[in-house]
Amino acid sequence: PSLIEMLNAYDFEAVASQVLTAEAWAYYSSGSDDEITLRENQNAFHRIWLRPRVMIDVTNVDMSTKLLGYDSSFPVYISATALGKLGHPEGEVVLTRAANTQKIVQMLPTLASCSLGEMTNARGKDQIQFFQLYVNRDRAVTERVVRSAEEKGCKALFITVDAPQLGKREKDMRVKFIADPPDIQDEKSVRRNLGAAYAISAFIDTALNWNDLEWFKSITSMPILLKGIQTAEDAVLAARHGCAGIVVSNHGGRQLDFGRSGIEILPEVVHALKNAGYEGKLEIYVDGGVRRGSDIFKAIALGAKAVGIGRPSLYAMSAYGQPGVERLLQLLKDELEMTMRLAGAKSLADIRPEMVDIRNLHDH
Ligand code: FNR
What we know:
Order of helices and strands: HHHEEEEHEHEHEHHHHEHEHEHEHE
Distance between the termini: 37 Å
Helix content: 40-55%
Shape: globular
Largest sheet: 8 strands, parallel
Number of helices: 14
Oligomer: single chain
Radius of gyration: 20 Å
Structural class: alpha/beta
Bound molecules: ligand FNR
């Protein structure tokens, strides 16, 4: 189908499932274990209803915002996803270019197919990039990576904290077994054949803990945010340790299965931070399962500054390259604008908690 026939985020997923190699589709689409959390990420949004207000002049709807002080055309950013070249020969720079024309922030992954320099060189004038860090147990390597990200102009450090070990993504593992039968005698080759996720993750530091944050602050002046917070308790700890923000996220359902969806966790996190005296002090982002403008609206209503998207941008890139990602972002923007107009919100500040009905959200 032609690009113009793509009417929503799901359409790109359907095309990507056809055009990607079996290996790439398995790596991109998989969740961990029974994929309960993966499915829940979208289901949870479907348990939130809207309470629109009427008789408001919605001729002009302003979706613009600031993430950590940097302009964004609407409250969406491209989250870090590894191995972009599985989906497109040019890899992550395709996302960079699309983020630039759509004036949104891109979060660069540690495990990108492109080098950090390639991604930062592809940056447009005034374009903002954040950096996602997987902490290497060799802290000299970690320090080099962080300093390099800052030198190359990244504006924030998002430390991924939900992945001391990568989740068991069985789709991904099975494809590798078919493609390349393992030699069970050889432990190393078995690991190699456990799929893309296992192959790239062996360096991650399982000992990472709260005491390490002081060290991170000593090696960078970028604001530090934690990606993968799933409880009120940890949100408050992140605040106490001086983080500039958090991403409420379960890593797209790829890590701990039976983790709750980000959108479900968001109210408890917002409430706890407020009670602990941190209201407005941290930026709260959420990701996982965002596929519609109404999903973005719901996240904003419940206190998120912006939402991250992972798979939708990978699928759009894989299916149609840069124009695909641009169209995906434009569709999400158009959907958000329509939701705001129909709900009586002229700006993001008008999207109030009372515009969503979450009675069914926690009760299912
Ligand atoms: C991810 N995600 C991720 N997160 C991270 O911190 N470092 C990484 O390297 C990756 N890699 C990665 C690869 C792929 C293929 C996917 C799908 C996801 C998680 C990502 O940043 C984000 O949290 C989720 O993708 C959001 O959920 P949706 O939008 O995919 O539903």
